[in-house]
Amino acid sequence: YGQPASAHHFLYNTLDTIIWLAESDEQKQVVHMVESLSDFFRTSLNQGKDIISIKEEIQHVRSYLEIQQMRYQDILEYEIDVPEEFYQNTIPKITVQPLVENALYHGIKNKRGKGRIVVTGRREKDKCVIRVEDNGIGMTKERLNQVRGGLTTKIEDSNDFYGLYNVNERIRLKFGEEYGLSIDSVLQEGTCVEVWLPWES
User: Fold this and answer.
1) CA separation for the pair 144, 134 (Å, rounded)
2) What does pLDDT average to over the chain?
3) What are the tens digits of pLDDT across the range 63-115?
4) Is the pLDDT reported for residue 36 higher than 50?
5) What is the pLDDT of residue 3?
6) Type and span of the H or E element at 193
7) Which stretches does DSSP call E strand in 100-146?
8) Residue 2 has what pLDDT?
9) Percent of the chain with pLDDT over 70
10) Sign of the torsion angle spanned by Cα atoms 60, 63, 67, 68
11) Torsion of CA 163, 151, 96, 169, to 10 degrees
């Protein structure tokens, strides 16, 4: 549970899928997938802005999951339920998508049968919480403790936690140390990562 796959791999894998769909005359799916890919990279590039609205971030996650569901339709289903009242709050760009990517690659792909990723939002007094939950393979207590440690300590010579460390650090630098990621996991049951941000609107 750590380093997400690179954007290059994601792009190449998606293009491979588009070619396969085109060769199979699945024209509607080709159009849908190209639209999702375009939306995904529009947010990723986004004129160099580091902070975006939660609305934009959730659209980025939706584009990502639409693409991955076409690739992994036998093992992936998802739900996004973040109310519109959250949309005007801001978030460092590409915060939630790496968490969803981790849920897919480290949680769901390693378990038997169909997996589910659920992205929700809730308000806790003056804080905004975006939750990414999966019913994947989960982690041992030892592994969970390692990952929690890796949120705040840059471990040299290890890419293992870099994705999560990076996301957490960007939130803390922007909003303060009371904000960032929290993570919980139970082996064979799944993992839950929460993004804690200030409620601004």
Assistant:
1) 15
2) 89
3) 999 999 988 888 999 999 999 999 999 999 999 999 999 999 999 998 888 99
4) yes
5) 43
6) strand 190-198
7) 115-124, 127-134
8) 44
9) 91
10) positive
11) -90
Model confidence at 160: pLDDT above 60: no
- Beta strands, E only, 8-109: 51-53, 76-81, 90-92
Calculate ∠ Cα 91-103-87, nearest 5°. 25
Q: Hey, is 116 helix, strand or coil?
A: strand
How far is it, in rounded angstroms, from Cα 115 to Cα 52? 29
Helix (H) or strand (E) holding 180: strand 180-186
Q: Are 148 and 165 in contact (CB under 8 A)?
A: no
Q: Based on the number of CB atoms within 10 Å of its own CB, is 81 exposed (0-12), middle (13-18) or buried (19 or more)?
A: exposed
Structure tokens at 2: 């750590």
Scored b (16 or more CB within 10 A) or e, 111-131 reads beeebbbbbbbeeeeeebbbb
